[in-house]
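Hi V.,

Quick status before I head out on leave. The structure for the redesign project is tokenized and pasted below; the design run finished overnight.
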């Protein structure tokens, strides 16, 4: 059986993964999954208290994403997922066919966006720990968050065509 395909919009909190993922989903007609929806309650409570997740928190979370995608009748998804470490991306790529697009945002802009949004469990105080955890690699395609969401989606569509 062929591996399921994911277009992974990755990056730190506040980079626009959900916003861009939903817009891209509409353009491509491919379902969008928000990795935040796969966190167990314990992870959400931990982050809500301002405590960064560690590998022990993240492995079951990633496994639940793979499980869902693998057992879906769909062959392709757009996934908004931090995927901060190379080992996390390797884990996902061993099980699924993925293309990684890094939504590249500055620390100041991420903090400003997070402080402006309401009702999200992730506090802006965790931006620094996410940036410290983020491991860039040559296979990542960087998408600037300096553009409007529509321009970012157009940039992504251009990348996907090549």
């Amino acid at each position: 059986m062929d591996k399921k395909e994911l277009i992974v919009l990755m990056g730190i909190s506040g980079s626009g993964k959900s916003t861009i993922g939903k817009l891209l989903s509409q353009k491509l007609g491919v379902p969008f999954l928000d990795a935040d929806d796969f966190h167990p309650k314990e992870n959400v409570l931990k982050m809500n208290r301002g405590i960064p997740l560690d590998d022990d928190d993240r492995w079951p979370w990633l496994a639940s994403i793979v499980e869902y995608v693998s057992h879906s009748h769909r062959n392709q998804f757009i996934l908004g997922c931090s995927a901060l470490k190379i080992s996390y991306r390797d884990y996902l790529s061993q099980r699924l066919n993925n293309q990684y697009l890094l939504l590249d945002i500055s620390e100041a802009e991420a903090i400003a966006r997070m402080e402006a949004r309401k009702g999200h469990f992730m506090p802006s105080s965790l931006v620094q720990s996410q940036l410290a955890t983020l491991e860039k690699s040559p296979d990542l395609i960087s998408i600037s968050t300096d553009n409007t969401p529509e321009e970012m989606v157009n940039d992504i569509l251009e990348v996907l065509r090549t």
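Above is the designed sequence. The two ends are 25 Å apart (CA to CA).

G. will cover questions while I'm gone.

Best,
W.
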